[in-house]
Design goal:
Two copies of one chain form a homodimer.
Chain A (H helix, E strand, L loop, with lengths): L2 E5 L3 H12 L5 E5 L3 H9 L5 E2 L2 H6 L3 E4 L3 H14 L5 E4 L5 H6 L9 E6 L20 E5 L6 H14 L2 E5 L1 H32 L9 H7 L6 H10 L1 H23 L3 H11 L2 H6 L8
Parallel strand pairs in A: 1-2, 1-4, 2-3, 4-5, 5-6, 7-8
Antiparallel strand pairs in A: 6-7
Chain lengths: 289, 289
């Protein structure tokens, strides 16, 4: 892949740019970003060689990587496929997969597209948040593998490998359902925890002086970008709604046992929850753990 | 303080022992633990000089530190005060304060007692989890300061200082209310997140293969000890129940806007939640952040 065009020069696209350059996978990296400040910062940071308008950047590309929020991917997927040179490959890094795959299922160039989702990120955003090795050792999910051509898949796999990703294959519905529980629900619980404590702080001044590392860890994801997450929640509202429902159900059970003084049952619930320990210890992945 | 007796040789008591010894604050440290395995491990690890039965250990002490779960502190507070030598000081490190302070309000030796809560800990427990510098730079809350004698308070402050704690003063009700939001609710949200995803995993095999650092951070507190937390929840059930109620209310709002496709309002809610960022950045305290 001589020329890689990255659309979206934030944490996700910028981090990919850093690694692709270091690994000499791309001889040239073209950036596209509708935010001129981000485009300028990406140039200044050396993430990309040049910034071009979308059409020109796609037409020059061997690989196009879409690293924008999932609503923007939804808006770009068909027009970019339309413009994509015959030999080139289109990859997206969106956190939802079902709606996106559905959009281009009948597209004549569907074979040139690889639907991917690397499970990587931080709560920060923008080109300055881009990190080398963000993807190293992380899981990458490719959906509807059978709809991608062998050539596109081989190109994409070479790029994933250069990033250090470990790729698994899954259908798009299963992806969205599982991510609702293992990722999107964590974000909701964290956003809502933040709102609850910020509300409490209005009445209870200086409450944050009492915050320990446990609160900081639990609420960390509440720093995440609404521009990224609102479209993910929207696209995955059915599965996420189900996950939130189940979460509320268990919270209410906890609440009932708390209020009726049923400490023995609270104890059992926590013992149940403790079973997450070996799961997490098998997966120590990032410094953020 | 020549002899410090530490009752409870787990993470909290063991970590205090390490620091008090290093700082030469205690010439002798006596341990008490009803679990013989913990007592043996604490001796083997050099956390304490000797292990004695409670009565003997209290009678020999210049300072007694209660570092056991809050239900056990509740059971020990009066008998230990009864046994406490006239010159000695009793300190507890329990995470709730109102019920404990209430128990001894009329005790003739109330002045010898200092009710404290250092906001420090990890999700691990037992003597092997004890860490040097666990308390360094952390906030310590002393409740009902005016009920402690000047002498007891001075002794306690010297001990807190040796641990590197920064002490603030607060009434016990305010403490319990604020901790319900800033600490206990985080634990509940994390325990329940763990239970929800473990439940989902029964239907969706291999879901944990998709876990990223965000999930790990949000669910970390679900590894916490039920033996420690069940009594905290029980003692703080009124304020914690109120906090959980408010958390569920905001979750339901989020859920409603999600299901009615009100993405603009979800966006606003997340922007609201983002206000936690400067709060957390002002308080980067531990490597676990």
């Amino acid at each position: 892949m001589h020329t890689v065009t990255i659309v979206g020069l934030g944490l996700i696209g910028g981090s990919a740019a850093r690694d692709l350059r270091r690994e000499n996978v791309a001889t040239s990296i073209i950036g596209v970003d509708q935010n001129p400040a981000h485009a300028g910062a990406a140039l200044a940071l050396g993430l990309v060689d040049e910034v071009l308008p979308l059409q020109e950047a796609v037409e020059k590309a061997d690989v196009v990587l879409l690293a924008v929020p999932v609503n923007a991917i939804g808006a770009l997927l068909r027009p970019v496929l339309d413009l994509l040179p015959e030999h080139a490959t289109l990859i997206d890094f969106g956190s939802t997969k079902s709606a996106l795959c559905g959009q281009v299922r009948q597209h004549p160039k569907r074979g040139q597209y690889v639907a991917a989702h690397p499970i990587a990120g931080t709560e920060n955003s923008g080109p300055a948040a881009a990190l080398e090795h963000l993807y190293k050792g992380k899981t990458n999910i490719v959906c509807e593998r059978e709809a991608s051509s062998g050539e596109a898949l081989a190109t994409a796999m070479a790029l994933f490998e250069a990033l250090g990703l470990q790729t698994v294959f899954m259908d798009a519905e299963t992806h969205d359902k599982q991510l609702a529980y293992i990722s999107h629900l964590s974000h909701v619980s964290s956003f809502v925890l933040s709102m609850t404590v910020l509300d409490a702080e209005k009445a209870e001044k200086d409450i944050f002086a009492l915050a320990g590392s446990g609160f900081a860890s639990t609420v960390r994801l509440a720093k995440s970008s609404p521009a990224m997450w609102a479209p993910i929640f929207e696209q995955n509202s059915a599965y996420l709604g189900q996950a939130i429902e189940e979460y509320i159900t268990i919270l209410k059970q906890f609440q009932e046992h708390l209020q009726s003084g049923n400490t023995a049952i609270l104890y059992q619930m926590m013992e149940q929850a403790n079973k997450i320990r070996p799961v997490l210890e098998g997966k120590a992945k990032t410094p953020a753990l």
